Amino acid sequence: MNKNYIKLVTTGRYVPEKVMTNDDFAAFLDTNDEWITTRTGIKRRHVAADDESAIDLAYKAALNAIDNAKYDVNKIDLIVVATITNPMKSPSIANLVQAKLGLNEHHVMTFDINAACSGFVYALEIASSMIGSGNYKSALVIGAEEMTSILDYKDRGTCILFGDGAGAAILEPTDDPNYQVHFYNGSRGDDTGILWIDPLVKMDGREVYKFATDIMPKAIDQVLKKANLTLEDIDLIIPHQANIRIIQSVAKDMNLPIERFLVNIDEYGNTSSASIPILLDEFKQKNKAPKRALMIGFGGGFTWGAAILMV
Ligand code: UT7
User: Fold this and answer.
1) pLDDT, averaged across the chain
2) Is the pTM for the entire model greater than 0.90?
3) C-beta 271 within 6 A of ligand 1
4) Among this protein's residues, is 159 annotated catalytic?
5) What's the pLDDT score for residue 1?
6) Residue range 263-272: mean pLDDT, rounded
7) Is any atom of ligand 1 closer than 6 Å to the C-beta of 37?
8) Coil, helix or strand for 8?
9) Separation CA 258–CA 226 (nearest Å)
């Protein structure tokens, strides 16, 4: 079996019910709906309940993925969670999801990774490689964030951007060559504090914007080259949701209609590592037939993640 053939057998998501609108921010900050909408595309974001953390969001997204396919949870032997908002240094969220799923008596490897908004794509590469090694047969990969727990609500340039949520996918090996996966994940160390969480989000928005609009088309080109494919071979593009203007700029740069990109930023804002798997699950619940997707993320670190896979 070729080690790069990976099948997404199910996906799921969980987004908290509570919503914060742009007008809610205008009640305590010098901002307004018009500024936030035109500069970012964001109208609402979902906010975890007081008794909910990124651990709960991750677990609920995993349960949803399992329920959606009536998946046999006992098959899972690897759990990787991409997150920057675990309320604890240890245990990892992945480790706690194992316990909540009742898998403590099973042989499962669990760990979290920190690659900010590129985290889910990084986690997909890690899980795919581990499946490719032949040692794992069923990987639960989650992106989960309670971004609202690390926001400075006095900083109008950052706090209006982010929301909470989680998305999950289960991966298995397959011998179907159509399911070859390709990645172009990388990083450029941010040792000057352009986008740091220490302990709250601090960001030079313009610099991050420049980085994003520069790296996204480059990473898309690189992953297409690695896959020996062109944009014509791609059915859908799943971009990280940070700012609608960033997605529009990438579309323009690549001569693509904006309709080729999945977008839900108006409803959720930026959910960091959860944004790509939430979009993925929204798509999969409406489109069951396998499609070739290109995922493209960027984020703090700096990091970027590009993937081509069947979803
Ligand atoms: O996942 C990665 C996370 N981060 C990102 O992706 C962020 C990327 N950057 C961006 O999305 C944009 O840079 C922002 C949305 C953060 C800011 O948009 P911008 O068009 O780059 O605005 P700016 O920072 O250049 O600020 C323009 C003006 C400033 O006022 P002055 O100096 O011109 O008087 C800001 O103080 O807008 C002001 N401003 C606001 N005004 C109303 C900044 N935030 C707000 C706000 N409401 N919330």
Assistant:
1) 97
2) yes
3) no
4) no
5) 44
6) 98
7) no
8) strand
9) 24
Choose one of 83, 203, 206, 211 to mutate for the ligand 1 pocket test, by most ligand atoms within 8 angstroms of C-beta. 206
231 C-alpha to ligand 1 centroid (Å): 31
178 is catalytic: no
Backbone angles phi, psi at 254, to 5 degrees: -100, 5
Confidence (pLDDT) at 85: 98
Statement: residue 2 has pLDDT above 60: no
**CB within 8 A of 165, min separation 6: which ones?**
13, 14, 15, 16, 46, 57, 61, 144, 145, 268, 271, 274, 275, 278
Domains identified in the chain and CATH numbers: 1-311 (3.40.47.10)
The mean pLDDT of 14-32, rounded to a whole number, is: 98
- State the pLDDT at residue 3: 64
Q: How far apart are the C-alpha atoms of 190 and 30, rounded to whole Å?
A: 29
- Please tell me what DSSP assigns to residue 106: S
Secondary element (H or E) of residue 214: helix 205-227
From the CA of 158, give the closest atom in ligand 1. 16
Q: What is the mean pLDDT of residues 167-193?
A: 97
Q: Which of 30, 39, 83, 250 maximizes ligand 1 atoms within 8 Å of its Cβ, making it the mutation to test the pocket?
A: 39
Show the tokens assigned to 270. Answer: 């930026």
